[in-house]
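Before a computer can learn anything about folding, someone has to put a protein's shape into writing. The outcome of that step, for a single protein, is printed below:
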Amino acid sequence: MGHFRMSSTRLAHRPVGVPRAARGRHRRLAWAVTSTAAASMFVAPAAVAETAVPAPAASPSSGTPAAIDLGTLGGTSGSATAVNDRGQAVGFSTLACEAATHAFSWTAMRGMVDLGTLGGSRSFAVAVNDRGQVVGFSTLAGEAATHAFSWTAKRGMVDLGTLGGMSSSAAAINESGQVVGGSSTAGDAATHAFLWTAKGGMVDLGTLGGTGSSAAAINDRSEVAGGSSIAGDAGGGHAFSWTAADGMVDLGALPDFAGGRGFSVAVAVNERGQVVGRSATARFHGTHAVSWTGGSGLVDLGALPLDVFSEAVALNADGQVVGNSAGPFSEHGFSWTAAGGMVEVTEPGSLESNAAAVNDRGQVVGSSRGLSFNHAFVWTAGGGMVDLGNLGGSFGEAAAINDRGVVVGRSATTGDAATHAVMWTVSSKREEDRTDDRHGGDGPSGTDERATPES
């Protein structure tokens, strides 16, 4: 299956086989699912392995982060990839045998719950909405194929199928339960973007005239963003926006080094319909972060000084864009706004930093590395970078943040004996009280078990 991703330098260094962390409010990216799902939904047993994990403690009024060990499913490696506004975290963990990896859901009330698989030994959760519906992908029996799944507390893990081929993967979900991603078509001839709903099953979103496409994000207005090959499969493909009314729209690309309209891909979309991603540039065969709106069209966000590569990875409701910029020797996170342009997300002594997500309060999270540290961080324009700490080991990485300031990711434990899923809370007590009133949460983590869907 084709994959639209930066083909060079340090910006494409994520581990193979591990889902890229969900970013910002609209959690994101991977591959996809099928239309045969409507007729043949397979419900895997909802294996429940609840662990005695304490609920996160409230942050002190100073906003000092508190690292909470979410544990594992019995193995030595786990990572949280996404968190909803009620504090429900999802991700994946090895089991006690270490030979299997399962998706999990964690809440303050139930701890870490094993979501099971679709018959194989591996599953990964990549996104969760505020109703508690989790999506991701899992291997089937025999490990020869991978299918997208949806999981709820009532129905367990549901196989979303494919578009006629062997494999699919879910990338994102909105608050209505619409799922997007990518799936192989009949005969595994190509990969196409899909939109899945409980009533309609999996729908092929088509392409921009080429053979392949994949959806990366969806907002609550059902606007989908991703990447597709174009006619003749030339140039590596273009970013697209898709709506039911207009179908798939080519967002174009920046002029490339040959003077043509080169490669671009979209990775995120906010509620205003603003789409962000990256596009090839004419300068040193590089790529730049880009933003697209109906009014301004495609805008080059540039790169940090002396860098030739940049990519946008997330944006919030106000249009603040975060991502990463790289040169020959290092990579640093950035925050971009229309008023202030691109600002480096860094701290004194940092050799590299990586921005992963931003919430609607402008809090950016990721990881930063120096000669004497390797830690997760939260950054704001006014307060700079704050070390989130870790679980006693040598590193920590933040993957996602919700609008209440709850951050999730992974951290090494004492002596680097294991890597556990971790949660930090960076809100002040006053902010938590205010958001509790708005969201109806049951405590500092904001987890409201009553919001779990019944479908």
Q: What stands out?
A: The longest helix spans residues 429-439.
